[in-house]
Amino acid sequence: MILSTAATVPPEATQQAVGYPSLFLLVLIGALVPVVPTGALVSSAAVVAFHQTAPFSLLLVFVVASVAAFLGDVALYWLGKRGMGSKNGSRWLQALRDRAPEDRLKQAQERLDTHGVTVLVVSRLIPAGRIPVMLACLMARMPMRQFVRGDVPACLAWAVTYQLIGILGGSLFKEPWEGVVAAVVLTLVISGAPSVWRRVRKSAA
């Protein structure tokens, strides 16, 4: 009876039962510890969902990724606010400062002064742009409510962008693994392009 029941369970159901919680946890961790390539994770999940026959697979990837990114951002901002209010700071605040070069932080502060919370949307879409803007928000003593108001559309736009990259990769290849490789490579190229451009400009100056 158990074997016959297990045989009727489609492989996609098993993939979803494991895949969505894993995607949620990895994106959440990546938002808290900015070393996990969360964009590549979302693109890869979108490729797999694109090749599935189960309804709403792509929608679930979008919801899971955007919610996890939002919760991670809010948690990191809350930890940063605690560090700003603490006499000795915190390791989370120090980690933010270590990942925000002075020139990027200055640019983020200028953009925050000019555009307000809308800069959060752009920062989520620019590789390595999220941390300097978040630190600028912390230094400006931005209230949590105001940060949340800007971070919601930022996370939605981020999830849509990287999901579209995954759909593009999935549509170009018949095999899901080929689409995953293409999506990951494209995501890494997009993520690394700004830093390469900055190095070229510095060497040319």
Write a brief structural summary.
The chain is an all-alpha fold.
Fold and architecture overview:
- The chain is mainly α and 205 residues long.
- Helices cover 82% and strands 0% of the residues.
- It has ten helices and no strands.
- It is elongated and about 55 Å long.
Set out the fold topology.
Blueprint: H1 2-8, H2 11-32, H3 38-50, H4 57-85, H5 91-98, H6 102-115, H7 119-125, H8 130-139, H9 144-172, H10 176-204
Helix pairs in contact: 2-3, 2-4, 3-4, 3-9, 3-10, 4-5, 4-8, 4-9, 6-8, 7-8, 7-9, 9-10
What are the salient characteristics of this protein?
205 residues, mainly alpha
Radius of gyration, CA atoms, in whole angstroms: 19 Å
The number of distinct helices, counting runs of at least 4 residues, comes to: 10
Describe the main β-sheet briefly: none
Our measurement of the CA-to-CA distance between the termini, rounded to an integer number of angstroms, reads: 73 Å
Order of helices and strands: HHHHHHHHHH
Strand residue content = under 5%
Secondary structure tally: strands: 0
Portion in helices: over 70%
**Structural class assignment:** mainly alpha
Question: Number of domains in the coordinates?
Answer: 1
Pfam families: VTT_dom (PF09335)
Domain VTT: 44-166
Membrane topology: Multi-pass membrane protein
Transmembrane segments: 23-50, 56-79, 152-173, 179-197
